[in-house]
Amino acid sequence: MPLDLTGISNRNEYFSSHYLAALIEGDLKDTLARWKETAEANPDSEAHRSPERRIATLYKPYFNLLNRYVVLRDPAERLAAQREFLPRLLDALGYVYQPSWRSIGPSGTPLAKCLRLPMLGEVTKSSGAPWLWIVEALPPADEPETDPLSLPVHSAQFDGDPAHHDPQLASPHPARDLAWDELVTRHIFSLDEAPRWIFLLSLGHVVLLDRTKWPEKRHLSFDCERRYGKPMKWAT
After folding, report:
1. Crossing angle between the packed helical segments 59-69 and 75-93, to the nearest 10 degrees
2. In a domain, 235, yes or no
3. Rounded to an integer, what is the distance from CA 18 to the centroid of its chain?
4. Could you tell me if residue 2 is inside a domain?
5. In this structure, is residue 236 part of a structural domain?
6. Taking residues 66-93, what's their average pLDDT?
7. Fewer CB atoms < 10 Å away: N or C end of the chain?
8. Are 148 and 121 in contact (CB under 8 A)?
């Protein structure tokens, strides 16, 4: 049966059309079978449910939160509301929600000239080198479906940053008009030791960026509202 790709945008052919039409289902067959086998062997274990089923259980919490989000005008309140959902989504995907801040810049750049970046989590290689960075965009209340790549880092995301109280950590925040698209291009994927992958999350979207495909702006974008708007099944 064909995979259900509702709400998944293959931007600039991250995958070729032929791969999506004829090959991806076969490549995922063993993984999906393994998920099913593990879940059936542990029917009472939430931790052993397949990622697709764990994501599906967030259907009601997601729409309850979305209905509340669209009436919030205070950015700090929107950020707090969004962060009620994102940790649960990351957990369902198998990642750890661990907010932090990082100063980034070319090797040898003085800290005062580095750029301060809010993070939601990361995965590193065994060597400690970056592999995946998880970051966040805050959409406006009246347009939560806004493409997160078009949004800048919001000042509310730096509340609680220890750099506010420790001059030794001080680094400038990204400019208010610097969208994530440009931030990724100019300041993250250009690092001497850049992550291979970036997850950019918002209440409206999950965007997956691959450093090797980003020069052509090829990426995957998952529309959460559309994806949750029908039964969460990979196959129909």
Report:
1. 170
2. no
3. 26
4. no
5. no
6. 96
7. N
8. no
Tell me how many domains the chain contains.
1
Domain that holds residue 89: 8-228
What would the pLDDT profile of 103-157 be if each residue is shown by its tens digit? 898 888 888 788 889 999 999 999 999 999 999 999 999 999 999 999 999 999 9
Q: How do 205-210 and 197-201 pair as beta strands?
A: antiparallel
Q: Is 128 left (phi over 0), alpha (psi -120 to 50) or beta?
A: left
Q: How far apart are CA 77 and CA 156, in angstroms?
A: 9
Contact call for residues 69 and 141 (beta carbons, < 8 A): yes
CB of 97 within 8 A of CB of 91? Answer: yes
Which pLDDT belongs to residue 235? 35
Query: Is residue 106 exposed (0-12), middle (13-18) or buried (19+ Cβ within 10 Å)?
Result: exposed
Residue 234: partners with Cβ closer than 8 Å, 6 or more residues away: 3, 4, 28, 32, 52
Residue 234 lies inside a defined structural domain of this protein: no
For β-strands 130-136 and 219-223, DSSP reports them as unpaired
Q: What's the residue count for the chain?
A: 236
Q: Give the separation between CA 33 and CA 50, rounded to whole angstroms.
A: 10
In whole angstroms, what is the distance from residue 95 CA to residue 47 CA?
Answer: 12
